Amino acid sequence: MSDAPPRPRRAERIRGWLAGVLPTLRLRLVVVFALVALTAAVSASGIAYWLNRDAVLTRAQNAALKDFRQSMEDNVGNLPRTVDCQQLRSAAGKMARSAQNYEVLLLPGTRDGGRCVAASNRDDFAPGDVPESLRTAVGKKRTVDSSNRHPYHLYWQRITKNGEPYLVGGAKVIGEGSTPTGYMLKSLKSERDDLTSLAWSLGIATGLALIGAMLLAQAAATTVLRPVRRLSDAATRLGEGKLDTRLKVSGTDELAELSRTFNETAEALESRVADLSAREASSRRFVADMSHELRTPMTAISAVTEVLEEEQENLDPMIAPAVQLVVSETRRLNDLVENLMEVTRFDAGTARLVQDDVDVADQVTACIDARAWLDAVEVDADRGIMARLDPRRLDVILANLIGNALKHGGSPVKVSVRTDDGELVIEVADRGPGIPAEVLPHVFDRFYKASASRPRSDGSGLGLSIAMENAHIHGGVITARNAPADAGGAVFTLRLPLDAGDSASSDGSPEGDGGPEAEPGPARGPSEAGDAPDAGGPGRRADSEDGTPRDGTPRDGKDGR
Predict the structure, then answer these.
(1) Alpha-carbon gap, residue 540 to 537, rounded angstroms
(2) Rounded to 5, what percent of the chain is helix, strand, coil?
(3) 350 φ, ψ to 5°?
(4) Is 0.90 topped by the overall pTM?
(5) How would you class 524 by CB atoms within 10 Å of its CB: exposed for 0-12, middle for 13-18, buried for 19 or more?
(6) For the segment 191-241, what is each residue's pLDDT rounded down to a tens digit?
(7) Which CA distances in Å does 530 have to 244, 396, 401, 508, 545?
(8) Is 424 strand, coil or helix?
(9) CA–CA separation, 475 vs 394, rounded Å?
(10) N or C: which end of the chain has fewer CB within 10 A?
């Protein structure tokens, strides 16, 4: 069976075509009003024209035919049975002097009557002007019975002669033997002129009605669309975050009801957002307070664990594993507290840049060397690429990206540095399995884990999130993607402006030395780099933020695992 999508129905195609031809509601209203008015005006004008046309022509032809019948009875019906041409011409002249102003043609009833043609005006009306069908109908004798009291009848027909309309009527005098036949020719030019004037008048009226309808449609569209435009503007302001936006409600129509619904929705949204903002602020205060409260005891505990670690070789072998576990977990807890404090600084907007002119190649090398990653990382960076940025925050970003690649990817990890259109571009590529498609959009989310079945891992899930925040404060960004299938692995790309001063000022993070986080310098260990969130498989986390395994032994730097 074919997998081709079904063809759109005719109604959908028509709607799509109309949407393309009439893109705006105003235009649609004007066109609909105009079509309705045009249809109504044309229909009314057409009906009026045909009714008047029928009335005018019927009145004119009935008057002419009635007068012709009476004139035939008065002038031809009294002629002797044997009539000569002179008598016929005299009768035709008398008949033509009627008030109806028609021409008359009289033919004797004999077979050779064609040689005696009596016409009131032979130039205007000749036997050839009478249609053959009319002559046949006039000369046909019908049986007289109860339904037909006369053998001959009066017939008429409209013809066009020399481009002018005429009425031709004919009748045969009823009597014994052969009787004369008379025909009349009446011009309908005046009636045609009257009907033409009527048609022009109706056409002008239709045009005026159409113009009036379009003006009315414009006024109606303005009346209808003004509230719609106000609603659109209010929705735009609401979307921009101005939750106190309200519409003025007047009237009881559908648009007024729509305005009331909008106001109720905006009020509910404002209340909901205020409630969520209060909860978020409360949560941030709780995290910040908790982090600061934990920092003092953690300092004391860290000092004790350092002493225990130094005396580990002198401890009872039965107690040493427990001491090692305490040392490892204490370091992990200390890392978490430091990361939470860093996050609260970003959320509160108190994070600041301490900028310096940095040779990026030296900075990358120093970051890798400080964590003993030289054997597992390949650096492709030319010296002399200078950038003005915060060296400590760049070190945090690099430590997270490279540590994440070593933990979840495969050696060697390649770090490339280049400039592109006024930007500093640093790429960190590994040789691992890559990042699953469903995980890729969430690698920079806080506390994100790809596998819900393994909620606990060595990291807190904040490393890449903190790296992204540090990139943002410089006016840059970090992106993640998978390398082509032939190369394999994941690629993290850091883009920073070569001079972060303008970007930092524009996003509300001006330069300054405020806060304990502002000291420049090389990596300070786990508290700086954070841990890498799950970025390539179930429960995958970096061992530590600075690349040092949790057991305290240095990494061998061969496989990056």
Answers:
(1) 6
(2) 50, 15, 35
(3) -100, 0
(4) no
(5) middle
(6) 888 888 988 998 898 888 888 888 888 887 777 777 788 888 888 888 888
(7) 40, 8, 10, 23, 5
(8) strand
(9) 12
(10) N
